[in-house]
Amino acid sequence: MQAGLLIIRLVVGLLFAAHGTQKLFGWFGGYGIKGTAGWMESIGIKPGVPMVVLAGLGELIGGLLFAAGYWLPIAAVLLIVPMLVAIVKVHGQNGLWATSNGFEYNLVLIAVVLGVTLIG
């Protein structure tokens, strides 16, 4: 069971961390702080720059903590909050299915993070 949880933590945690670096540094095809801030402001998340920094740091730090298996409750909050914001501000109005840009994937990530955190 431990090896299975390790695989889940590493894949999900490191992908979250990489997603945070897209926001913060423009790595892996991301738009960096200014580019992401402009998009966030266009969907009503203001002020854009501080919100990008908070989201990016949450995903980066939360992802690394999750991958390492440290402070899982804190990591879970840092990862689940941006997913809830994504559901409310971006995907929720499109319904459930990812094929319609819905919140299916966000919900799966929330379930994985919460489930692994509850297992410990």
Automatic annotation (TrEMBL):
<feature type="transmembrane region" description="Helical">
    <location>
        <begin position="102"/>
        <end position="119"/>
    </location>
</feature>
<protein>
    <submittedName>
        <fullName>Oxidoreductase</fullName>
    </submittedName>
</protein>
<keyword id="KW-0472">Membrane</keyword>
<dbReference type="InterPro" id="IPR051907">
    <property type="entry name" value="DoxX-like_oxidoreductase"/>
</dbReference>
<keyword id="KW-0812">Transmembrane</keyword>
<keyword id="KW-1003">Cell membrane</keyword>
<dbReference type="InterPro" id="IPR032808">
    <property type="entry name" value="DoxX"/>
</dbReference>
<keyword id="KW-1133">Transmembrane helix</keyword>
<dbReference type="Pfam" id="PF07681">
    <property type="entry name" value="DoxX"/>
</dbReference>
<feature type="transmembrane region" description="Helical">
    <location>
        <begin position="70"/>
        <end position="90"/>
    </location>
</feature>
<dbReference type="GO" id="GO:0005886">
    <property type="term" value="C:plasma membrane"/>
</dbReference>
<comment type="similarity">
    <text>Belongs to the DoxX family.</text>
</comment>
